[in-house]
Amino acid sequence: MTKFIINDQIVDQDKAFVYVSDLALLRAYGIFDFFRTDGLQPVFFEDHIDRFFRSANIMRLKCPVDKENLKSLILDLISQNKIENSGVRLVLTGGESPDGYTIGNPKLIVSNEPIKPLPEEHFSKGIKLISHEYLRDIPEVKTINYLMGIYNMPKIKANGAVDQLYHWKGKISELTRSNFFVVDENNKIITAANRILKGVNRKYVLQIAKQKFEVEERDIYMEELVQAKEAFITGTTKMIMPVHQIDDIVIGNGKPGSVTKDLQITFSEFIAQHLQSHR
Amino acid sequence: MTKFIINDQIVDQDKAFVYVSDLALLRAYGIFDFFRTDGLQPVFFEDHIDRFFRSANIMRLKCPVDKENLKSLILDLISQNKIENSGVRLVLTGGESPDGYTIGNPKLIVSNEPIKPLPEEHFSKGIKLISHEYLRDIPEVKTINYLMGIYNMPKIKANGAVDQLYHWKGKISELTRSNFFVVDENNKIITAANRILKGVNRKYVLQIAKQKFEVEERDIYMEELVQAKEAFITGTTKMIMPVHQIDDIVIGNGKPGSVTKDLQITFSEFIAQHLQSHR
After folding, report:
1. Is A118 an 8 Å CB contact of chain B?
2. Chosen domain end from B47, B82, B114
3. Which residues, other chains included, contact B177 with Cβ-Cβ below 8 Å and sequence gap of 6+?
4. What confidence tens digit (pLDDT) does each residue in A158-217 have?
5. B118 shares contact with chain A (CB less than 8 Å)
6. Which residue from B158, B153, B163 is spatially nearest to B128, judged by alpha carbons?
7. A69 and A186 share a domain?
């Protein structure tokens, strides 16, 4: 039976619950993080744990276990569950609130479940997005709020798209669960610098991209999409995924471009090396 | 011991929990509603139940019990708990999700707890607000998302305010948990028409206001605040509460105005009559 972490304990599924006075349930006040395992080895483990604690700190939520204890609890959970190539989700809630509004003692929940692989053609042919005017609440924090993402799913599917590209005041920020990049006519790689969740994969993709290409972190405007030669997204399960269309705008020739394909290969090699060196 | 409703059952507190795979916890996907009781009699019961089902419907959440059964379950809960002048909160979650993103079978939770009375001077002297640029997600739905409200509490308190007034693209919408009204130099009462949660108290205040004053539901712009003679908010526990200052803008002479005070009295009488006729 799959095990979970609740606070400082590894528990069975029937103990993995939250009382109804918790602010996460009453007021959506909570943060999370998510990483995958390669076999049973966590990918970019330190980065995700660090970001989890940064998110918690900004939201004034005190994690009931410290960073080192959390890491060993999670490694223990993974080795007990023995689910190869799984996802590990950490949630920290606002805690049981005395008045339904004041932060209580945050509850830590860690789950570890199989990941359904994404369709292979999303990687090889790319995906379509629709645009949506929206700014994530407190965008630099990985809050639990994905209301807009789930609410718009029927509209996304009806348009033959797989996700939405958020923009606000003319500036492109990110997708529901991924960072967004364009490649301009000079093969310069551009991604939003502000009002986004700084993804762990975004960080490493920028790092490897800089070795071969010019890279710019700055505001990207909606108008730039028509001139973009390539576009792609990054994320924990998406790695690097090409984007071939946004609304009615076909990106480049509608096929994954050479810079994106180059980065896909280089990033896979980078992750393999990274895992090797952390074994 | 206080009882709760979970789905179609009245249960003890130790059974009032949600499993960690519920979308409300993982993705903040859920709706709620809240009403108060006068003694043990629900106030504007039908309106709140109707709005709860409207919110659920827009969010594609199917309540596990129908409207009539929910009403009799709630009346039963109130009579078992016997908490006079209490609050009743209905939450409908996204349900346990197979993949952490797809809507499952929604879970109904109803809690019934004492309400802490608001400070008397909030009603007699009014309150200060700060403004904040924000649009609630899916504003016509009472979602559980109050991240921005709770996150900004230290800033609100540091400014000597009690809540924040949201505005977006220059237009004033609402507070975190209340509707907002201004009174202009001709004693016309104006409140936002769009992109707001249409409060139950807002509806009845508009109804009684129309009998004495000119009333307009339309976009209100931030620039109009400097000319407003009076301002007030409405809500389930706030009823009608005067606003004397927003950021650095003192409203009128900084004291509750005659229209607001008139409406406070008329609305109290209206509620008393309404309760009498529904007894």
Report:
1. no
2. B114
3. B146, B149, B163, B235
4. 999 999 999 999 999 999 999 999 999 999 999 999 999 999 999 999 999 999 999 999
5. no
6. B163
7. no
ipTM higher than 0.90? yes
Is A144 within 8 Å of chain B by CB?
yes
The total number of structural domains in chain A stands at: 2
Nearest to A147 among B25, B29, B91 (CB): B29
**pLDDT at residue number A9:** 97
Indicate yes or no: CB of B24 within 8 angstroms of CB of A20.
no
Examine the domain organization and report whether A104 and A182 are in the same domain: no
List of residues 6+ apart from A81 with CB closer than 8 A: A2, A3, A112
For tokens 């994905």, the residue is A146
Domain span at A53: 3-114
**A127 shares its domain with A235:** yes
Q: Alpha helices, DSSP H only, in A105-146? A: 120-124
* A21 interaction partners in chain B (CB closer than 8 Å): 111
Partner A, chain B 189-218, Cβ-Cβ below 8 Å: none
Q: Could you tell me if A110 and A124 lie in one domain?
A: no
Whether the CB-CB separation of A82 and A40 falls below 8 Å is answered with yes
User: Do residue A147 and residue B100 have CB atoms under 8 angstroms apart?
Assistant: no
Residue ranges of B 235-274 with Cβ closer than 8 A to chain A:
none
Q: List the CATH number of the domain containing A21.
A: 3.30.470.10
CB-nearest partner of A29 from B27, B30, B150: B150
Do B150 and B198 share a structural domain? Answer: yes
Which pTM value belongs to this model?
Answer: 0.97
Mean pLDDT in order along chain A per 10 residues (279 residues) = 96 96 97 98 98 98 98 98 98 94 97 95 98 97 98 98 97 98 98 98 98 98 97 97 98 97 98 95
Residue with tokens 């709770």: B150
Shared domain for A126 and A190, answered yes or no, is: yes
A4 close to B (CB below 8 A): yes
Domain boundary among A114, A139, A160: A114
Residues B161 and B195 in one domain: yes
Query: How deeply is B261 buried, as exposed, middle or buried, from its count of CB atoms within 10 A (0-12, 13-18, 19+)?
Result: middle
Q: Which two tokens stand for residue A89?
A: 């989700």
Indicate the average pLDDT of chain A.
97
